[in-house]
What does this fold into?
Amino acid sequence: MQIRDIRATTVTVPLEAPLRHANGCHWGRFVRTIVEVETDNGLIGLGEMGGGGDSAEAVFRAMKSYLVGRDPARIEEMRFLIANPTASLYNNRTQVLAALEFACLDILGQAWGAPVCDILGGRLRDAVPFASYLFFRYPDPRTGAGEVRTANQMVEYAHALKRRCGFRTHKLKGGVFHPDYELEVYRALAEAFPGDSLRFDPNAVWSTEQAIRFGQAIEGLRNDYLEDPVFGLNGMRRTRQMVRVPLATNTVVVNFEQLAANALDTAVDVILLDTTFWGGIRACVKAAGVCETFQLGVAVHSSGELGIQLATMLHLGAVLPNLSFAADAHYHHLAGDVIEGGPMRYEDGAIRVPDKPGLGVTLDREKLREYHELYLRLGGYPYDQDPARPGWTPLVPNDRWADPHDARPVAIPF
Ligand SMILES: [Mg+2]
It folds into this structure.
């Protein structure tokens, strides 16, 4: 079996409402690149990467000169071919490698009649539990509905998501408003869901002293962990010395060098594995093995997936013995998907691991065309800008918070 072609298509999929975060906002949509790798026997493997446009599509086209004619089973060699660690000083292709690894595993699973999790050691669970992943939101630019700004709105929204999806873990994405305001919102969630577990993530924009202040204030709640309260391993280490809540990261331990540093002088308790950031599902399995050895916790990180990447997260979650926390997903914020029968459904706070060979998802060509046209119509959006505050430049540590009393409507083109 040989790789014959590689194609990439940029899509824009609408969200229920714009999601606010510490560095800006998802402006009511996700832009993703859908990757197809085709073999000489007619199999098509699927991959996915964040962002898109002409430059992303050109990067995947350029990979044809490396990969056409090669055996898709030689995935470890592909790592050195396109993402050699020393050559990557000049041209980091970790995320490109990840999308191609997803597609090659998908091809192999189809060729061998095995779900990807079986290739990775076999499933330990049939469904992966997820957290509710709550964001402050602007109203949907099309309907005006869906604003989440106040503690009451947040609690109501969490109840609605729990009714719909069955979540028993709630993650609050903060870093938008002053930490004192977000602390009140977090406490309101803890009070509203006394039997559920909680986690908070301000995307690393606090000072270490602010991180310590907030961390100490939430001791005693049912915290899974406090995620990236501060940027940098030393800030995390200083926070960890002063706070009796486990710390997690998807920011400062995202490769094996950093994982080694964290094992030798621990600054973070729980490593959030992202199938894109780490360069593929197999790299995440390997990293989870290191974490198992050093007794560090692991969970599954979300970088804003559609159904293809969600499938990679499900197969990863299925095979990790030390997955002791619910995974994160932005998935329930989507208003559509590019896979047949999608979006996948949550049952009792979890999503079933696909049973079919490969990743177990099939591209819906009609949806692919529709969402590609939406991308062509709307173009990209500045992820690191807030549509309500043109020119706003957040600092690290930040003190330029949004105003929680500002309820003006926000004009977001759609
Ligand atoms: Mg995070």
Notes: Residues 119-359 form a domain with the TIM Barrel fold (CATH 3.20.20.120). The radius of gyration is 21 Å.
